[in-house]
Amino acid sequence: MIRTGCFICLIPAWALILPAPAFAIQLHTGNAGIIAHQIGHLFFLFAMVTLMFTINSQGLIRQKGWRQIQLAALFFIFWNLDTLIAHFLDNQIEVVRIETLSITRLAVTTQSDSQLLAVIYYFLKMDHLWCVPAMIFLYIGLDSLLKAQREAQRQAPGGKEAGQ
Amino acid sequence: MTANLPILLVDVLGSVIMVVLGVLSLFKAKSLRDLDPDNVVFLYLIWICAGFTIFAVSRSFSHILRQFLVLTGSGDVWASIGPFTGAVNTITFMLVGTVTLFFNQSWRINEKVLSAKQKHQETSAKLLELNQTLEHKVVERTEKLTSSEHKARRIFEHSLDTIVVTDPAFVIAEINQAGVELTGYRKSDILDNRMGLKDFLAVRSEREKILRLLGTDEYILNEEADFLRADQSLVRVLITGGVDYGAFGCGKTFHFIIKNINDKKQMEQQIAQADKLAALGELSAGVAHEINNPLGIILGYTQLMLKNPGDHEEDLKIIEKHVKNCRIVVSDLLTFARKGSTKMQPIDVCQVVADVIGFLGNHSDFRDVEIRCPEPCSGPLMIFGNEQELAQVIMNLMINACHAVDKKGCIQVETGMDDHGRVKITVKDNGTGIPEKDFSRIFDPFFTTKPVGKGTGLGLSVGYGIIRRYGGDIMVRNRKEKGAAFTVTLPRIEMNSDGRDREEKR
User: Which of A138, B96, B261, B415 could form an S-S bond across to A72 if both were Cys, CB 3.0 to 4.6 Å?
Assistant: First the structure.
């Protein structure tokens, strides 16, 4: 038993005494960050889709609060699509480049001077137009759930109303 | 060149609103959680709102910082910070996404928790209901049990028959008040001295029979026995009993019901005696009637012949004497048979008794006999009858008593009222008493224990006939001390001031 333990301890010691090149460690280029970020957005999008379907499948759609939370998930999906496209254009394939000139002016440069792409990118940059409504729906959804819960507790046996 | 202001405003304002909404949502989720701390979905909402808030803060901070650095010409700084804020943003919405994916599981867990909670509440409600039902039933059963116990106790305590509970060795464990009165012992004496049922069964054969039956059949039904009381007197009883193997941890016991049939037995004997005497009376009356007429003729001719007696005067006188004796016997028989006709009127028993005592006190046979009257009459005790007949009855009783004490003893005559308001005359002696075998015959006509020629055996039977005709009764018993006691009871009448009888008291 002791002999087996000593033998196991010797293995890492042997590895330290006799070092060799570690070819397993891989170098990452600059694109790895944006890819990870995009995967994150995709994952977030997938989670929101799942949330929507779950709310549907559990029959929660009948409750106002959960319907509003479902809408929040829908807006987050749009937000994720917005940001995915925007990051794809400026960070991944780099067909669009934006440069802030002053507080009131900026320059959107497209690879082939496409005005349409510039306009699309300009609106894609205003992604808060998706995520702020999403947060608003989340808030009012929670508020509705809170009200419904209070009402349910009031009507439950032993509740205030039931007690009157 | 493009307008930067819309993007800038949307970016900055949107970032601030995101943070505010994130924090507000977190508070809402917390309020939900506070309402129902056991709800897993509300816990999940706290987590997801916390994720959104972190995401909003991280993202808003990076966006505002970027706008500020770019607009202040510090684009280089942003270039070095941007990757870090981007990474943090990535992590936050990955976190939110991850938390969101657990919604389904959270919901299912919550459903199970709610279901379990519902079942728990239903079970609790059922248990509560069952408990209340059980309590109600316990109260109801306890009331019934108490009532039943009370009834059983009342039956036991107030039964006119003796109820006895014994252990398997027939040692008395419980006895009711009627039993205490029957035995004549105190209840504490019976229980403390561990008296047994066997101690009260006076006759050995009866005791052995009862014990044998209890040993084999474990019950007895209407077994008659003589019951020995504390004063050593015997009472005829009817015993019914059986075994009880007990319940609820009680041991084996025997329960007995003992009925006092002494009075009933005596009454049956009296009825039988009365029936027998009535039959004898009918027979005697028939015989006497048939003999009375020839006797009258014989006596008439004899007395006619005695007017010219001749040589047969002595013989005729003997015939006359014996015919007269026969007529007396026939007269007594008719009196016994209640066929005679006598004048009935209200008479004072006290006066009649006093006259008889006064008369017999001077008789030579009573010279050495002490006649006692412990309680002289305080007032007239009126009955409806014939003075001579009543005097004859009392005289017969006293003469019999005199013979019983062999003309030297004590005769006690008591006159008064019994418990039923009837006139009672008791003649007691301290003589030899009456043998048990003769009790059923002493009122029979011609039954006598005297030597031949000394008595006709009609005294008591004639007395019996007279007293019965008056609606009364005559009873005899042997005294505990010594001798016999004859008790005559007669219905009393009350007299009006004008001397007429008003009411007969029975």
Answer: A138
> Is the separation of the CB atoms in B349 and B381 below 8 Å?
yes
Beta pairing, strands B162-166 & B473-478: unpaired
Structure tokens at B272: 């039988």
Closest-CA residue in chain A for B20? Answer: A135
d(CA B81, CA B78): 5
**Cα separation, B264 vs A65, whole angstroms:** 97
Cross-chain Cβ contact A101/B83 below 8 Å: no
- β-pairing, B370-372 vs B410-417, is parallel
The rounded distance, in Å, linking the Cα atoms of B494 and B501 is 6
For residue B137, what pLDDT is reported? 93
**Which range among A141-145, B21-25, B40-44 shows the weakest confidence by mean pLDDT?**
B40-44
Give SS3 for B165.
strand
- Cα separation, B209 vs B215, in Å, equals 10
How does DSSP classify residue B472? -
Degrees, nearest 5: CA angle B260-B263-B267: 140
Task: Supply φ then ψ for residue B202, to 5 degrees.
Answer: -75, -35
As a whole-number percent, the residues of chain B with pLDDT over 90 amount to: 24
Token duo for residue A160: 């205030």
Do B42 and A141 touch, CB atoms closer than 8 A?
Answer: no
Q: How many CB pairs under 8 A join A and B?
A: 128
CA dihedral B147, B148, B152, B155 (to 10 degrees): 60
pLDDT of residue B366: 84
pLDDT on residue B427: 92
DSSP string of A56-125, one letter each residue: HHTTGGGSHHHHHHHHHHHHHHHHHHHHHHHHIIIIIS--EEEEE-SSSEEEEEETT--HHHHHHHHHHT
- State the alpha helices, DSSP H only, in B72-102: 75-101
| pLDDT higher than 70, residue B454 | no
Q: Which two tokens stand for residue B176?
A: 């009711």
Mean pLDDT score, B6-23 = 87
CA distance B234 to B491: 30
pLDDT (0 to 100) of residue A119: 86
Closest CA to B32 of A143, A60, A55: A143
Distance in angstroms (rounded) separating the CA atoms of residues A107 and A92: 19
B462 closest CA partner among B396, B398, B413, B387: B396
- Please count the other Cβ atoms lying within 10 Å of the Cβ belonging to residue B370: 12
> Residue B134's pLDDT is what?
93
Q: Which of B25, B89, B107 sits opposite A142 (nearest CB)?
A: B25
Nearest CA to CA, how far is A57 from chain B (Å)? 10
Provide the 8-state DSSP code for B437.
G
Nearest CA in chain B to A131: B18
Helical (H) or strand (E) element with B462: helix B459-469
pLDDT digits (tens, 9 = 90+) for B330-365: 777 777 665 556 788 899 888 888 888 888 887 778
Least trusted range by pLDDT, from B31-40, B308-317, B424-433: B308-317
How distant is the Cα of A138 from the closest Cα of chain B, in angstroms? 7
CA angle B378, B384, B387 (to 5 degrees): 80
The rounded percent of chain A whose pLDDT value lies above 70 is 76
pLDDT at B403: 85
Instruction: Give CA A2 to chain center in angstroms.
Output: 52
In angstroms, the CA B176 to CA B221 distance is 20
For B100, nearest residue in chain A (alpha carbons): A47
Lowest-pLDDT range of A86-100, A112-126, B3-17, B445-459: B445-459
Task: Output phi, psi for B233, to 5 deg.
Answer: -80, 160
